[in-house]
Design brief:
By secondary structure, the protein is α/β, with parallel strands linked by helices. The protein contains 6 helices and 11 strands. Helix content is 33%, strand content 25%.
Length: 224
């Protein structure tokens, strides 16, 4: 498989190609890289196939999936290209590895969250759920993309009340938008900035394992 998207894959230690495993496609923020997401998703590796994907555009000392004209206003051509490229990579890797097609997840932070939400809206039942931390949905996606999210899509959205890049209202808008399409929305506003706090770190892990039917535990605060 020749993909323009550099990516690293971590397989469960008990990986058996004759079985099927849930997968997390992990997308980083602007100026970061796939190694950050591998570290973030490391606790999930015992149960999930982890695919950390590097953005194709050099951005400072890291990478990006798209560039922006201003906050909330991506360059459309670059954005469209990444949406199509990531879709194809998901298809290609799903054919190569023992991935359960009913338990495919996309998790992203900041720019990665933006891409995760968009992908879930355009590729329908190919995605079981998303974890979108500190992102937004571009207006042109809402207005001009062909949207057909699965009605059973599971959505975890989090946003900090002190986010200096994207105000908390964007997180609330994200959750409300997805509530128009699915009844399975978990929205977690938290006390913090544009970051993954230790509590959020535990919450999204629990949410993923629960949604993939891998645990029944409930950490304090998730469903309160």
């Amino acid at each position: 498989m020749n993909s323009p998207y550099i990516h690293e894959i971590r397989l469960p230690s008990h990986y058996n190609p004759d079985q099927r495993y849930p997968v997390i496609f992990a997308l980083h923020g602007m100026g970061s890289d796939e190694q950050d997401m591998l570290r973030l998703m490391e606790p999930m590796q015992s149960d999930f196939i982890i695919v950390a994907i590097r953005g194709p555009i050099v951005q400072g000392s890291g990478y990006a999936y798209f560039q922006i004209k201003s906050i909330g206003n991506p360059i459309r051509e670059l954005y469209d290209a990444s949406v199509l490229g990531l879709q194809q990579l998901i298809v290609d890797l799903s054919a190569k590895y023992a991935i359960d097609p009913k338990r495919r997840y996309i998790a992203g932070f900041s720019q990665g969250a933006i891409m995760a939400m968009t992908l879930s809206l355009v590729i329908g039942d190919a995605i079981k759920g998303i974890v979108a931390m500190s992102g937004y949905i571009p207006q042109f996606v809402k207005d001009e993309y062909m949207l057909h999210p699965d009605s059973e899509l599971s959505v975890f959205i989090s946003h900090g009340d002190q986010d200096h890049l994207f105000p908390l209202q964007l997180g609330e808008d994200n959750a409300n938008f997805f509530r128009q399409h699915t009844n399975h929305v978990t929205y977690v506003p938290y006390n913090g900035g544009h970051q993954v706090t230790p509590e959020l770190y535990q919450q999204f892990q629990h949410w993923l394992r629960t949604d993939a039917n891998l645990t029944t535990e409930d950490p304090k605060g998730l469903n309160s």
